[in-house]
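Listing S7. Sequence submitted for prediction.
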Amino acid sequence: SVVMSLWSVDQISSGILMQKFYEALSTTTKVEALRTAQLALKEMTAQEALNYCEQAVSMLTSSGETEAVHVLTEDTADLHFQAGNYAEAGRLYQELLAVLDADQNAALFQRVDAALTRCEMLAHRPKKPDYEKQVYSHPYHWAPFILVGDWQ
């Protein structure tokens, strides 16, 4: 059996879905484990996703995976942005820009620079961050995953 995605999905939501899938697989069928993982992802809050990112960053930092840490830092900043904490998102984007080489990581550098600009534009808006927001509720994140092969 294979769990596969019908389209490209961001790394954090894919990683969380697979973690939830394997956790559920120990007590149920494959198809039910996938359903459980999809529902868990759909209902996940920004704070829960941030907790996942923090664990992943600490694990990757200790193993020297610099590129992966950069991507996860961007994802962490994106989650703060989605929750409405533009100051924290901007701080993380600035921190990331300071360590990135614009020539070696041109695409990431441009994405982070654009995100920092969005934060700066929205920073003046008085908005209380909402870390209970369900950041992966859109079907883009959980719907493309299917089970192919023996689904029992």
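Caption to Listing S7: primary sequence and predicted structure tokens for the chain studied. The CA atoms of residues 38 and 142 lie 5 Å apart. The longest strand covers residues 2-5.
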